[in-house]
Design a protein that fits this description.
Helices cover 37% and strands 15% of the residues. The chain has 373 residues and is an alpha/beta fold. The chain folds into 2 domains: 239 residues, Aspartate Aminotransferase, domain 2; 125 residues, Aspartate Aminotransferase, domain 1, CATH 3.90.1150.10. The protein starts with 6 loop residues before the first helix and ends with a helix.
Length: 373
């Protein structure tokens, strides 16, 4: 039997995570924060000394993600922002960073503030200008997000990697490792908010970094900093994450199918001005998404309804199956009026961000039709 397993097999078997002690086919939950030593004060388990450094449950979840990414090493964090912060803390004072503009606002806001505090020169660059900027501007880190949230811009990872000698970090949250393995396209480090599609049940806060080079200086710094700073994911959250990832390929497949069907339906609707979704042929970056995303285009899309802010809010208020809440990638469909949340970011007032779940697509389309009506 081949040792190279498909993602569905890796996920379903949780990369081999079981409970040898009881014979259980799922891993046990071990919440202990500290671990015993023998009479000579040697650890009974050399890999378990204190849970701020590691735990069985943490390693099990990391191994699933490492295999799904095809990575050399993977580290989990208590949130996506904690993972991003861990990478940016490797930049020396007075360093340089190139960051794609129009990405998740929480990322942009934190990076701006951090760079000011550390006297780091920050270049915020439109997706279309990333390659030329990287060719002409040396930097410690290049950070991109593809597809981006909420504009759904696609960036050619390999082209950016070829244009720069910098460490390339890719936020692939909206794609998940099921649709895009960013390391195979030239990324040095791939980041996900595991809170979103990877967990997919809106009940775990987590972030993850995976690397192509586990012996790189930047990775050793990240690894040591996580331990010393205590940016660790708890064992219960790691256990829940492992449990959720068993169905990750199935969920991503269904959500991508639903999102594409809904995007096509809404794009043809007379009361919709435009739909931002990488799977639509008219969308900028569709050709890039076709090359980089295998098996679908993800669950996230943005809808520009015809009219004003009030028209968009009217539609959001009338939706019944789509829950009005902030997040994405869960089994339940969510909807958000982004301008209400982030009016200072240049988001159009008539834009509605949609995270499509696993419900019956007929019901989701019916819900939008009555809301637009």
């Amino acid at each position: 039997m081949s040792t190279s397993k498909k993602p569905a097999t890796i996920a379903a078997h949780a990369a081999g995570a079981t409970d040898p002690q009881s014979g259980g086919v799922v891993p046990a939950l071990q919440p202990s924060t500290t671990f015993m030593r023998d009479a000579e004060y040697q650890p009974l388990r050399a890999d378990n000394t204190y849970s701020r450094a590691d735990s069985d449950n943490l390693r099990q979840a990391e191994e699933v993600l490492r295999q799904l990414e095809g990575a050399a090493d993977t580290l989990l964090f208590p949130s996506g922002m904690a993972a991003i912060a861990a990478v940016f803390r490797t930049i020396p004072n007075g360093g340089k960073a190139i960051v794609q503009s129009g990405i998740y606002w929480g990322t942009t806001a934190w990076i701006r503030d951090f760079c000011v505090r550390r006297a780091i020169t920050l270049f915020e660059v439109d997706a279309d200008d990333l390659v030329s900027t990287c060719q002409n501007q040396p930097a410690d880190i290049v950070f991109i997000e593809t597809p981006s949230n909420p504009w759904l811009r696609s960036v050619d990872i390999q082209a950016v990697a070829d244009a720069s000698d910098s460490t390339l970090v890719v936020d692939a949250t909206a794609a998940t490792p099921i649709l895009t393995q960013a390391l195979d396209h030239g990324a040095d480090i791939v980041m996900h908010s595991a809170t979103k599609g990877i967990n997919g049940h809106s009940d775990v806060l987590a972030g993850v970094l995976s690397t192509r080079h586990n012996d790189a200086t930047i990775w050793r710094i990240v690894h040591d900093d996580r331990k010393m700073a205590g940016a660790i994911l708890g064992p219960f959250e790691a256990w829940l994450l492992t449990r959720a990832m068993r169905t990750l390929p199935l969920r991503v497949e269904r959500m991508s199918q639903n999102a594409l069907a809904l995007a096509n339906h809404l794009f043809a609707h007379p009361k919709v001005e435009d739909v931002f979704y990488p799977g639509l042929p008219h969308h900028p970056g569709h050709d890039i998404a076709q090359r980089q995303m295998k098996g679908g285009y993800g669950s996230l899309l943005s809808v520009l309804v015809t009219g004003s802010r009030e028209d968009a809010l009217h539609v959001v208020g009338r939706l019944q199956l789509f829950l009005r809440a902030t997040s994405l990638g869960g089994v339940e469909s969510l909807v958000e009026h982004r301008h209400t949340i982030e009016p200072h970011t240049g988001i159009p007032e008539n834009l509605i961000r949609v995270s499509v779940g696993i419900e019956a697509i007929e019901d989701l389309i019916t819900d939008w039709d009555q809301a637009l009506g």
